[in-house]
Amino acid sequence: MYDFSISTDQPADIFYGDLTSAASALVDGEPDAIANMANVAALIWQFVPDLNWAGFYRVIGDELVLGPFQGKSACIRIAMGKGVCGTAAATNQVQRVADVTAFPGHIACDAASRSELVVPVSKDGKVVAVLDLDSPLAERFTAADERGMTSLIAAIAGSLA
């Protein structure tokens, strides 16, 4: 059993350091990528405030397929290059979107989402999944959130593929 205590009332770099340490502990020694994605999605959902969705899409062939997540039911398949997730996967670049209604081709799985942060998960230079975070608040995700989530994913990417 894991019992993490991560305070959200601390500077972002310390918060994300603690979150990364917890995620690393969750995946340590576990070879199953799906189980690891499930635990990491649950961890993020538990400790990152103001989210309405947190989870993974896995690269299967030439599309993204829904993986473990927390939140409302979601789109199951997303074409590479389509929407925020497909763009992140196709370009291997983080997508931080302050207002999803202004993103060309945004795919609205949950009409309540207003902002989104998508971080590619790469193994050997190839995108194998994306971490997708949605918020009902416009401009929810900051540069500090982007750095923190990018560092978290970099630390555990080998356990998610």
Q: Descriptors for this entry?
A:
161 residues; alpha+beta; six-stranded antiparallel beta sheet; 6 strands; globular
Q: Give the tally of β-strands.
A: 6
Average pLDDT taken over every residue: 94
Oligomer: single chain
Order of helices and strands: HHEEEHEEEH
The low-confidence runs, each spanning 5 or more residues with pLDDT under 50, are none
Helix coverage percent: 25-40%
- Figure out the total of helices: 4
Rg estimate, integer Å: 14 Å
Structural class: alpha+beta
Describe this structure in words.
- 34% of the residues lie in helices and 26% in strands.
- It has 161 residues and is of the alpha+beta class.
- Strands 3-2-1-6-5-4 form a six-stranded antiparallel β-sheet, sandwiched between helices.
- The chain has helices at 12-27, 33-47, 83-91, 143-156, and strands at residues 53-60, 63-71, 77-79, 95-97, 115-123, 126-135.
Write a brief structural summary.
The protein has 161 residues and is of the alpha+beta class. The protein is built from four helices and six strands. The protein has helices at 12-27, 33-47, 83-91, 143-156, and strands at residues 53-60, 63-71, 77-79, 95-97, 115-123, 126-135.
